[in-house]
Amino acid sequence: MAKAPITFTFKPSSDTLNYHAVVDTTALRIVNAVAELPLELGNEHILYWWMEGNSGETLSIKVSKGGDDVTTVKESTIPPGKLKAAGYRRLTP
């Protein structure tokens, strides 16, 4: 299968939110809230993310290929009374 560059754009609710992401087993190198990773087209991949911050803080993630949306995480939220949260999303570019 062919590979294509997939762009991951992160939007944290605050500058103090610490977050990380992995696609399958590859850690994303996030620079200025953006990461890019070549992925096999037509194959299912899993995006995992985790964050550390204050209760109620959020992280939104937009995944795109050549400007077209592949998937979007609207808002992943740290639950009340907690300082950490994690999630995952399946995607097929």
Brief overview, please?
With 93 residues, the protein is mostly beta strands.
Structural description of this entry:
The chain is mainly beta and 93 residues long. Helices cover 0% and strands 63% of the residues. The protein contains no helices and eight strands. It has strands at residues 3-12, 18-23, 26-27, 34-40, 45-52, 58-65, 68-77, 84-91. The strands form two sheets. The protein has a four-stranded antiparallel sheet with strand order 4-1-6-7, with no helix packed on it. The protein has a four-stranded antiparallel sheet with strand order 3-2-5-8, with no helix packed on it. A hairpin with a 2-residue loop joins β6 (58-65) and β7 (68-77). It is elongated, with a radius of gyration of 13 Å. The termini are close together.
Strand order of the largest sheet: 4-1-6-7
* Content-based structural category: mainly beta
| Alpha plus pi helix count | 0
Strand content: over 45%
- Uncertain parts: none
Alpha-carbon distance between the two ends: 12 Å
- Mean pLDDT score: 96
Strand segment count:
8
Largest sheet: 4 strands, antiparallel
Q: What percent of residues adopt helix (DSSP H or I)?
A: under 10%
H-E order: EEEEEEEE
Radius of gyration: 13 Å
**Shape, please?**
elongated
